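Progress report, Aim 2. The chain analyzed during this reporting quarter is listed below.
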Amino acid sequence: MMDRDSKIYVAGHRGMVGSAIVRELKRQGYENIVTRTHAELDLTDQRAVDDFFEAERPEYVFLAAAKVGGIEANRSALADFMYENMMLEMNVIHAAWRSGVRKLEFLGSSCIYPRMAPQPMPESCLLTSELEKTNEAYALAKISGLKYCEFLNRQYGTDYISVMPTNLYGPNDNYHPEHSHVLPALIRRFHEAKMAGIESVTCWGDGSPLREFLYVDDLADLCVFLMNTYSGNETVNAGTGKELSIRELTDMVARVVGYEGRIEWDASRPNGTPRKLLDVSKATGLGWTYKTELEDGIRLAYDDFLRNPVRAER
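Predicted structure tokens for the chain:
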């Protein structure tokens, strides 16, 4: 278990997940937190990462840094997503091992599981069948990261764990019109349509895919909980165990934002994986459960969007 004065490195502290972990650590009284911006430390630069770990010697590491994006971003930049995520993961995990980090927690994604995995998806279904093509590159990189943690544990006796979150949303999300995930993209589109008085908004696909969403501060709570209580080679799913259709989500976001126009669907656009619900019985069995219901979380996310015009414009 981490002591209150333990030296903790949070990689990716400016992102949605990393910033939530920093908030949760501080809320629980951890103050010896080390961070670096991308300008200060390029995690794809192996020598720079090695030098950082040699100089700072953190005891615990939360690896939340990643190159992320929605369906279109993943499809159009396959090589970039695979290279950047593979490099930064391997560099951080390897440097952590070389410098004697006591424990590392790797943050992955539910996209690691097969396209047609059993629903809800247990941790054990990893690598049992084909991945979803629209985010295959990102998934392969994340699988490599969690497997490297597992292999270090098995070969060298390290205590490295992996957490696989479902779709996340909340403070510090990315609202870019082309590179964001579905929920923040809907918040921005409905807000802009409301402000401009646009009579209809067209959404991708047919609205049928089923998705699960977890408020990012709930994930951060789980991450700190697992760092203090869990050890094991198998990853731990992070979610709510509840799902809804994209059409239902779209109606909910429009209601929260206050958009009253028509919602139309472009079925020529890809839907992505038909269903993605995590089996969260392992996390529940360990003593954790989520706290924030989806509509309440969307209200909090929309408030964050309105308070942060610079991020809303990027």
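The first helix runs from residue 16 to 27. The mean pLDDT is 93. These observations will guide the mutagenesis work planned for the next reporting period.
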